[in-house]
Design goal:
The complex is a heterodimer of chains A (390) and B (172). Chain A has five helices and 28 strands. With 390 residues, chain A is of the alpha+beta class. Chain A has one domain (98-387): YVTN repeat-like/Quinoprotein amine dehydrogenase (Methylamine Dehydrogenase, Chain H). In chain A, the strands form seven sheets. A four-stranded antiparallel beta sheet of chain A has the order 3-2-1-28, with no helix packed on it. In chain A, helix 3 (43-63) runs antiparallel to helix 4 (67-74). By secondary structure, chain B is mainly alpha-helical. Chain B has a single domain (5-170), classed as Butyryl-CoA Dehydrogenase, subunit A, domain 3 (Up-down Bundle). Chain B is built from nine helices and no strands. The longest helix of chain B is centred in the first third of the chain and has 23 residues, at 20-42. Classes of the chains: A alpha+beta (390), B mainly alpha (172).
């Protein structure tokens, strides 16, 4: 149907008995109006009140359980540069699990109680499937570590990048980039081999569980899903997708989230695209993460100097019910779910802050500032993952 | 039709100061669009009347806090459409009556093609109906709809496209 036709036809539709409805409504509205007492503050009195209210609102946002709701109220009038009165340091995480953080200084593990350990001068850190180990890219080497920093093994390879660890508690594999190639090695450092000669610069993603199924992006932008075994059987590949930036499997392995620069899609295990959450015309998507339940998605968009965090609480074919959770000035760079799915960690680079926001139910926000100083870096630290209740 | 921006600001200012005639001007300018939008989302005449009326009552209650520099229409329409979506979802959950049935009963005297269109609209989800109504009845741009419903722009575009496709399949 053409838009013009639809406009014309809809324009001709009137609710039944519209006149009667209008007059009944006016009686009710005018009666309600008659009962109110108008308040007329002067402009001179109003301004300081607004300033104080705004300051109190932002303070409350940082400190009170109703933080998110307060911010929702003020965000349209006050484009926050940062949350004032945020905590000056990361005293603790609001949920179980440990964080991996990458800074210029190296890879860090942050414990639930806020204590931080620098693992060493590594980058691009990633958790093993159960959080017992960490894999990192070093200078011309792939390194497997314990979260305490002890090196389990290392493998010298040129141009190591984007290592990802997958599998089960007893049988794991690591996929990693080496130059333009994609390689695979067992979790004990043995059996290193080439999987693909050329791949796009996107981190591969292991499907959780058995079978060693790996998704990666080829140079043409196709998502390739391969059972990594002796024959490296290809299970499916997608059509080319422009500018894919990240892949993530849901925890139970049923869904694959594909984030491109301006699109966000969800595939099932068989390679069928189930949901196109964002498509043509979307603002750039800076980050996205599937919730631990596999039914919800959080994502970040940036446009006209402001960023927004959105949550789709339940995946549906039309991506309906996406809710904007938080908006602020500047760039949000990462978003991560807590292992229990009750919190979202939002990295707000331009404010040098992390925000911990309740994902559902009780509304609460905890802000932490001064991240660059805490992780001894001049560029804003990146989140490598929030894993596994300890 | 809604008044000009200047009229509207004057009515809001007058209503804030307690003028019933200014409130009435505001009401009569915005009631038709609010009522029609509610009706096209919920497809229930009684519910649409209640929703539009409640939206105006909410507006009266919030009148003192309203920023006169902002247009009144989008503020009212946001309330109307969100309440209409909530009402439709609640009814779907309660499964009181098939939606198509309700629509057919509400439009006995409409021309056949108008009835077909209403029935086709009723087969869309409330979220799709809402963006169709905001775009093609209330004439908001996709960007404005995204702001009103707090949705990503891409989601609005996708709903518009799917809604149009679906309507095109049912109503040639």
């Amino acid at each position: 149907m053409k838009e013009r036709d639809l406009r014309r036809r809809l324009g001709g539709l009137e609710p039944p008995r519209a006149d009667g409805a209008r007059e009944r409504a006016w009686q009710v509205v005018s009666a309600a109006f008659g009962e109110r007492e108008p308040i007329r503050p002067t402009r001179a009195r109003l301004r300081p009140l607004v300033s104080v209210a705004t300051a109190l609102a932002l303070l409350a946002a940082a400190l009170s359980p109703a933080g998110r709701a307060v911010l929702d109220t003020v965000r349209d009038t006050v484009a926050p540069e940062r949350i004032v009165r945020a905590r000056p340091a990361l005293f603790s995480l609001p949920a179980d699990g440990r964080l991996l953080v990458d800074s210029q200084r190296g890879a860090w593990v942050v414990q639930r109680n806020g204590s931080k350990r620098l693992l060493g001068a590594y980058r691009e850190s990633s958790w093993s499937p159960t959080g017992r180990f960490v894999v990192v890219a070093g200078r011309s080497e792939l390194v497997a570590l314990e979260p305490g920093g002890r090196v389990r093994w290392s493998l010298a390879r040129p141009g190591v990048s984007r290592p990802r660890w997958g599998g089960t508690r007893t049988d794991t594999r690591i996929a990693y980039g080496s130059g333009t190639t994609l390689r695979v090695v067992a979790g004990d450092g043995r059996g290193d081999r080439l999987l693909a000669r050329r791949v796009a610069p996107v981190a591969p993603a292991w499907r959780p569980g058995t079978g060693h199924v790996l998704a990666f992006v080829d140079p043409a932008g196709r998502i390739q899903v391969v059972a990594v075994d002796r024959s490296d059987r290809r299970l499916w590949s997608s059509r080319p997708t422009p500018a894919v930036q990240a892949l993530e499997w849901s925890r139970e392995g049923a869904l694959l989230l594909v984030r491109a620069r301006r699109s966000l899609s969800v595939y099932n295990f068989a390679g069928r695209r189930l949901f196109e959450l964002l498509g043509d015309g979307s603002a750039p998507i800076a980050a996205a993460a599937l919730g631990p339940s596999g039914r919800s998605v959080a994502f970040v968009q940036t446009a006209r100097g402001r960023s927004s965090l959105w949550v789709v609480p339940r995946l549906r074919p039309d991506a309906s019910a996406a809710r904007r959770v938080f908006t602020g000035a500047g760039r949000f760079t990462d978003v991560a779910w807590s292992p229990d799915g009750r919190w979202l960690l939002l990295a707000w680079a331009d404010a040098d802050q992390w925000l911990f926001l309740r994902s559902t139910g009780v509304q609460k926000l905890v802000a932490v500032s001064d991240l660059r100083r805490q992780f001894r870096t001049s560029s804003f630290p990146r989140i490598g993952g929030w894993c596994c209740a300890s | 039709m809604a008044g000009s921006g200047r009229d509207e600001r004057a009515w809001v200012r007058g209503a804030q100061a307690g003028s019933a005639s200014d409130l009435e001007a505001l009401f009569r300018a915005h009631w038709p669009s609010a009522h029609r939008a509610a009706y096209l989302v919920v497809h229930d005449a009684a519910a649409a009347e209640d929703i539009a009326q409640e939206a105006f009552l909410a507006a009266v209650r919030a009148l003192d806090r309203f920023d006169r520099r902002r247009p009144f229409g989008p503020w009212l329409h946001r309330i109307v459409v969100n309440r209409a979506i909530d009402w439709t979802r609640a009814r779907t959950l309660r499964a009181e009556v098939g939606l198509t049935e309700a629509v057919a009963g509400a439009q006995p005297e409409s021309p056949a093609d108008a009835r077909d269109l209403v029935v086709a609209l009723a087969e869309l989800s409330p979220e799709h109906r809402a963006v169709i109504v905001l775009r093609y009845v209330l004439e908001y741009t996709p960007g404005e709809i995204a702001e009103l419903l707090e949705l990503p722009r891409g989601t609005v575009n996708s709903r518009l496209r799917r809604g149009l496709d679906r309507l095109g399949e049912v109503v040639p």
